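FAQ

Q: What does a record look like?
A: Structure on top, sequence underneath. For example:
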């Protein structure tokens, strides 16, 4: 943590978003707003969502953004890390999908590696292809 860059007030405004969930529907179910929750002040300004980028001041990670998104009442519950590899220029003129390594932490562990590869056939067309491994949540047993 000692190498985390501490953003200025201006950088905080540019690199971070904070918010609070409102009432609405998720998958057909109605939900109330944060301010309507029991024991919450109806005038509360407490954030229930944050997203942003932070930087580490070290030779290895200088200039590399680390993005995060967290909050209550998001459409997906889970923890994962996406490592997005440096985008390369396409030698074929068309834009390429990014190569991404995703490490799944919760609710099931595993990984996914998405890479650009040649499509089967005589023509030289590229397409993303992925290798995935996920544990079965019911198979983890008494895992801590």
């Amino acid at each position: 943590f000692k190498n985390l860059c501490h953003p200025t007030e201006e950088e905080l405004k540019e690199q971070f978003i904070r918010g609070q969930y409102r009432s609405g529907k998720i998958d057909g179910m109605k939900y109330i707003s944060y301010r309507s929750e029991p024991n919450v002040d109806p005038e509360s300004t407490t954030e229930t969502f944050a997203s942003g980028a932070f930087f580490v001041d070290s030779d290895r990670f200088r200039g590399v953004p680390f993005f995060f998104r967290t909050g209550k009442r998001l459409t997906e519950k889970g923890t994962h890390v996406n490592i997005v590899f440096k985008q390369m220029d396409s030698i074929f003129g068309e834009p390429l999908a990014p190569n991404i390594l995703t490490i799944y932490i919760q609710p099931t562990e595993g990984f996914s590696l998405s890479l650009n590869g040649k499509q089967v056939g005589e023509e030289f067309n590229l397409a993303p292809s992925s290798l995935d491994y996920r544990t079965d949540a019911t198979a983890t047993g008494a895992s801590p």
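Q: Is there anything notable about this one?
A: The two ends are 25 Å apart (CA to CA).
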